[in-house]
């Protein structure tokens, strides 16, 4: 496979697992193309044309020849210059690394993180929150994240390091988050838990979370009692980063009883608790590993060697019943 083929596979898998539905995403891409066609020649030149086929602007090929053939990749959750030095060391020791894949956004993918947060409003609407409310409540948070990244992030640091070290680099964020959200949803629906305790038992049995427990980093009930009934479940896995805390009022009114997610700041947790929503938090790196593993299984099936690093807990699922 080439770098370009690997990246396109990630996007395709992300679309297939999108909690909004594959057809919804395709419809949005079609609208983007229609808007693009109406632009003047000058504005078309400035348009980010990758958005015509990639709906996840927080995932990008950041450096390297897209046509380069790939046999071995190093894959981590957070890739920075220090991780790239490890990859360079491997390459220098006759174990050439053809591509480094990170999960969390880097470079231009980080700068465009806020753009994928609109996904959260669409998912909430599918759970019964009126779309006008979901969009209105989310918008201030989206603009806040956009401002924070623009003002404070050293977005070019890791990409420049990759260029200097001659290491092709990409990041796969929302596609992997979609994969884990879809996977967790399926696992929970198989067993249909009634209480939070039963729900936690299901989550605890997932290998990546089971491994995290060895390091005292297993999933936790952060709002609610073990005996509390689950009700309708919503997932906070995909959509860039935590949304607006004000949404929990409307989520509760829409009948959402429990939220399962990767991480939640204390202020957000208190707001969910205020509105009687149970919350189970599974951990960021642990959850990210699941999503990346589902993608990496497909690469390994195609003969690509995977070297995990930077917090990735590698678990293979293909070939198992």
Main β-sheet, spatial strand arrangement: 1-4-3-2-9
Low-confidence stretches: none
**Order of secondary-structure elements:** HHHEEHEHHHHEHHHEEHEHEHE
Number of domains: 2
Distance between the termini: 27 Å
How many H/I helices? 14
> What is the share of helical residues?
40-55%
Average pLDDT, rounded to a whole number, is: 94
Structural class: alpha/beta
The total strand number stands at: 9
Residue fraction in strands: 5-15%
Largest sheet: 5 strands, mixed
Task: Using the alpha-carbon principal axes, give the shape.
Answer: globular
CA radius of gyration: 20 Å
Q: Could you characterize the architecture of this molecule?
A:
There is one protein chain. The mean pLDDT is about 95. The protein has about 325 residues and is of the alpha/beta class. The strands form two sheets. The chain has a five-stranded mixed beta sheet with strand order 1-4-3-2-9, sandwiched between helices. A four-stranded mixed beta sheet has the order 5-8-7-6. It has helices at about 5-15, 20-35, 40-45, 80-90, 110, 120-125, 130-150, 155-165, 175-190, 195-205, 205-215, 245-255, 265-275, 285-300; strands at about 60-65, 70-75, 100, 170, 220-225, 230-235, 255-260, 280, 305-310.
């Amino acid at each position: 496979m080439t770098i370009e083929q690997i990246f396109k596979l990630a996007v395709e898998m992300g679309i297939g697992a999108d909690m909004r539905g594959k057809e919804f995403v395709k419809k949005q891409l079609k609208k983007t193309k229609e808007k693009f066609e109406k632009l003047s020649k000058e504005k078309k030149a400035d348009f980010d044309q990758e958005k015509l086929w990639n709906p996840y602007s927080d995932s990008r090929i950041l450096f390297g020849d897209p046509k380069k053939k790939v046999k071995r990749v190093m894959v981590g959750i957070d890739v920075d210059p220090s991780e790239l030095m490890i990859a360079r060391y491997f390459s220098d020791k006759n174990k050439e690394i053809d591509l480094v894949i990170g999960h969390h956004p880097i470079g231009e993918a980080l700068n465009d993180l806020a753009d994928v947060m609109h996904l959260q409003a669409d998912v909430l609407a599918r759970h019964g929150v009126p779309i006008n409310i979901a969009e209105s409540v989310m918008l201030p948070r989206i603009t806040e994240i956009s401002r924070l990244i623009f003002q404070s992030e050293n977005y070019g640091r890791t990409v420049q390091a990759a260029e200097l070290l001659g290491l092709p680099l990409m990041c796969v964020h929302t596609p992997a988050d979609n994969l884990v959200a879809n996977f967790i949803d399926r696992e929970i629906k198989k067993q249909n838990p009634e209480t939070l305790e039963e729900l936690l038992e299901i989550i605890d049995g997932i290998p990546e979370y089971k491994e995290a427990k060895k390091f005292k980093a297993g999933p936790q009930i952060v709002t609610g009692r073990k005996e509390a009934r689950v009700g309708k479940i919503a997932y906070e896995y995909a959509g860039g980063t935590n949304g607006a805390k004000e949404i929990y009022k409307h989520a509760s009114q829409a009948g959402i009883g429990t939220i399962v997610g990767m991480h939640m700041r204390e202020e957000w947790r208190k707001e969910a608790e205020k509105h009687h929503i149970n919350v189970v938090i599974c951990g960021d790196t642990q959850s990210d590993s699941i999503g990346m593993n589902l993608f990496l299984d497909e690469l390994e099936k195609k003969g690509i060697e995977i070297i995990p690093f930077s917090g990735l807990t590698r678990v293979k699922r293909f070939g198992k019943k």
